[in-house]
Amino acid sequence: MATSEPKAPETAEPPTESQVVANPEQYIKHPLQNRWALWYFKNDKSKSWTENLRLISKFDTVEDFWALYNHIQQPSKLGFGCDYCLFKDGIKPMWEDDRNKLGGRWLMTLNKQQRHNDLDRYWMETLLCLVGESFDEASEDVCGAVVNVRPKGDKIAIWTSNCQNREAIMTIGQNYKERLNLPIKALIGYQSHDDTSSKSGSTTKNMYSV
């Protein structure tokens, strides 16, 4: 017998009352533990650093994250000098922010070949680690993540709030390395923002490494 309602797949479980919203065909979204903001930086030398930094969007549900992720360009398609920054809402992606200034970052530098082979996959896993709170209690120390697209080699970093909080930092670094499925011999290092801002990147020492 014909019916005006769409037929659900046989394998689908019927929605519970709490899942049904005003539109019976639409389900509630799945909330994330934190609200996040995605920023985009384009290096226009005619503008100041802060003028080059632009807020793209904020989200706090799984569905809105994927809608945003699928709408924007992958890092490998960005021009040199461009960045994406994903930070908890209320934290700006700069060293001077109160939540960042005492912290540091786990930094991974990729070679030119990895831009085509690994960059997009590593960045997606980094985002999933953040929005999915993948570092257990240490996730509270996470401020955000940054991907830098550069001619000499791209960089991905996870920023944390306190460079002296060794236990949380090591938990984040070890779990992050496992999530990216990096070889054991491939070391990633943690640097304080204070050291990074006062020295050139090539001479910044690692406080920790995994």
From TrEMBL:
GO cellular component, as recorded: eukaryotic translation initiation factor 4F complex
Transmembrane segments: none
Keywords of the record: Initiation factor, Protein biosynthesis, RNA-binding
Segments of skewed composition (Low complexity): 1-18
Keyword DNA repair: no
Pfam families xrefs: IF4E
One Gene Ontology molecular-function label: translation initiation factor activity
Region Disordered, annotated ranges: 1-20
PROSITE patterns according to UniProt: IF4E
Family to which the UniProt record says this protein belongs: Belongs to the eukaryotic initiation factor 4E family.
Protein name as catalogued: Eukaryotic translation initiation factor 4E family member 1c
